[in-house]
Amino acid sequence: MNAQPATRTAPTAGPLAGAVAAEWTKLWSVRSTWWTLLSAVLLTAAAAGQLAIYAANDNTNDDPADDRGMVTLGSVVIGSLELTQYAVLAIGLLAVTAEFGTGTLRTTLRCTPSRGRVLLAKAAVTGAVTFGSGLLLGGVGALVAGAVLGEWGHAPLGGTVRDVLASAAYLALVGVLALGLGAVLRSAVLTVIVLIAVLMVVPLSLQEPGIAVLTRIADGFPGVAGGHFLAGDADPYPPVVGLLLLAGWAAAALAAGRVALRHRDA
Amino acid sequence: MITLRGLTKRFGPTTAVDDLTVDIAPGRVTGFLGPNGAGKSTTMRMILGLDRPTAGRALVDGRPYRELRHPLHTVGALLDAGAIHPARPGRAHLLATARSNGIDRRRVDEVLALVGLDDRAAAKPGRTLSLGMGQRLGIAGALLGDPPVLLFDEPVNGLDPDGVRWIRQLTRSLAAQGRTVLVSSHLMSEMQQTADHLVVIGRGRLIADAPTAEVIAGGSAAASVRVRGPQPAGLAELARRLAGDGGVVEADGPHGLTVTGLTVDRVGDLAYELGVALHELTPVAASLEQAFMALTDGSVEYAAAPADSPTTHHRIEAR
User: Fold this and answer.
1) Same domain for B78 and B43?
2) What is the pLDDT of residue B80?
3) B239 shares a domain with B200
4) I need a surface site. Which of A41, A89, A119, B20 has the fewest CB within 10 A?
5) Do B196 and B262 belong together in one domain?
């Protein structure tokens, strides 16, 4: 019997850094990521343009009751998120459901056997990319809104920057929420359905009757909490609580995803 | 070294792997044989930390896979070769794999060259790869970390004869370098040419764990002696004596016999004693196929038999 092969020098980078680098490489080596970003940009432009047209129209039509006067570009950017978030959260969603669908999760788990580390790496990449996308979309939305609103738009520097940063933070957290849910549910379609329910359908249904208790419950949902944070509402809780609630949902989804990955066979 | 201790996996009422205890030693190619559904892939997935054992342990160099920080430096594996994202180029797939374990990107080019994939093939998205190219890409991924332990699940699937020959040489040279090489296959003839040692399982249970030659010899029911001669009467007389000696004799036309259960020496001596002229006296080595069939038939019998009488197992193991 020959000698054992010489042991290679151990890699200097830690396993988490490696896992993050691998996720980054995987994300940008498929075209769907680029298509997702392009569609998010187009959706943002369309949604911001539409909202800006409504605002300008309210001010110029014959009905003085609906006049809103000057509108901030940031508020238009935030308004457009309701639609565009679904394009952006696809990045978080696909980071894990595509791996279930194609069987590449087995390769990923062989490279990084710690399930928590895999999810953490995916969350870091998803969060960074969705945050960056949020900044880009905020810029695009503000540009389109400014052009369409004309004299009815105004953009106080501090307020606009704050709104764009808040949008980016919202998208990053929703992206991570989508990632965690995807790890639990495995199917992309199922995850989208649950996300739409949690972000929109369920809280809307709870708010609809205008019953105080139900409205309070709705305030705990991630989409509503994120909405309060984005709008800078003081009621029912300060904006930072809204941010923390949304972050809590994202963290809980990740934790659930970790439990699911640890206990299920890949 | 791969160490399995009481490794068991149940899926609901089905026991896929049943109390498997075996060591896969370095420095030789170990063939992992069994009929479809015998539990080979499940065992490999448990070694790789993908499936959780219901009971028992699977250790690689003494540690559970899930505890390895940079596992690709310890274990390389080819599992289902199709497991590449349909839109991701093969090279990017390898690059992501390498990065996860801090492996230099130059190594990606090295393993691509090693498995014979050129730049054009490596740039193709996963969905356009042929089965054979997918296998080569998977093997490239297994070799990335230059690991001392290698697992190949059905590596020759989809390969052309050149590819099959290449895999045979590759696995042999990896073992010659002192690595632990476990190759699963249902192609017994291939294993006969490649494996030094065989681990045979059926219905999740260990049936044989022995050198390849011994497994073949162990299927002794199948090892036979071919006899041919010009005198039908003499051959008939020889057949009677052979049967009396405990051999099983089948007539092969008027001028031939096939004898099992006796050595070629004994058949030759008897023919000399009786003065029967022979034109041929040939020992026919049992093929692994025959040994395997004999073994796995036993596993089916065994499944219906009481749990403490693994007859086939004893036949191979008792030596």
Assistant:
1) yes
2) 76
3) no
4) A41
5) no
Q: What residues of chain B score a pLDDT lower than 70?
A: 81-82, 218-222, 286-292, 294-319
Q: How confident is the model at residue B218, as a pLDDT?
A: 65
pLDDT of residue B130: 87
Report pLDDT digits (tens) over A22-50: 999 999 999 999 999 999 999 999 999 99
Claim to verify: residue B207 and residue B245 sit in the same structural domain: no
Interchain contact B280–A (C-beta under 8 A): no
With CA atoms as reference, report the closest residue to B26 among B188, B165, B140, B175.
Answer: B175
Query: How many residue pairs from chains A and B have C-beta atoms closer than 8 A?
Result: 126
Number of domains comprising chain B: 3
Classified as helix, coil or strand, B287 is: coil
State which of B213, B243, B263 marks the end of a domain.
B213
Interaxial angle between packed helices B105-114 and B131-143, expressed in degrees from 0 to 180 and rounded to the nearest 10 = 130
Report pLDDT for B299.
54
Boundary-marking domain end, from B160, B190, B213 = B213
Q: Which of A25, A104, A109 sits opposite B95 (nearest CB)?
A: A25
- Do B40 and B86 belong to one domain? yes
Q: Does the distance separating the beta carbons of B96 and A106 come in below 8 Å?
A: no
Closest-CA distance of chain A to residue B247, Å: 40
- Tell me the nearest-neighbour CA distance from A96 into chain B, angstroms: 12
Asked if the Cβ–Cβ distance from B51 to A4 is below 8 Å, we say no
Among left, alpha and beta (phi > 0; psi -120 to 50; other), residue A233 is: beta
Decide if B209 is inside a domain. Answer: yes
Look at residue B124 and tell me if it is in a domain: yes
Q: Show the low-confidence residues of chain A (pLDDT under 50).
A: 1-7
Structure tokens that stand for B99 in this block: 């990065």
Domain that residue B258 falls in: 224-284
pLDDT in tens, B189-210: 788 889 999 999 988 889 889 9
Residue B140 within a domain? yes
Domain of B17, CATH number, reads 3.40.50.300
Does a structural domain hold residue B95? Answer: yes
pLDDT in tens, A107-141: 999 999 999 999 999 999 999 999 999 999 999 99
Closest CA to B91 of A8, A25, A91: A25
pLDDT value at position A253? 97
* Strands (DSSP E) found in chain B: 2-11, 14-24, 28-33, 55-60, 75-78, 149-153, 180-185, 197-202, 205-211, 224-228, 248-251, 256-260, 280-284
Mean of per-residue pLDDT scores for chain A: 91
pLDDT in tens, A2-15: 444 444 555 667 89
Q: Is residue A76 a contact partner of residue A52, using CB atoms and an 8 Å limit?
A: yes
CATH of residue B242's domain is: 3.30.70
Q: How many CA atoms lie within 13 A of B30 on its CB side?
A: 24
Query: Do B155 and B112 belong together in one domain?
Result: yes
| Same domain? B17 vs B123 | yes
Alpha-carbon distance of A131 to B51, in angstroms, equals 35
User: Are A12 and B102 within 8 A, CB to CB?
Assistant: yes
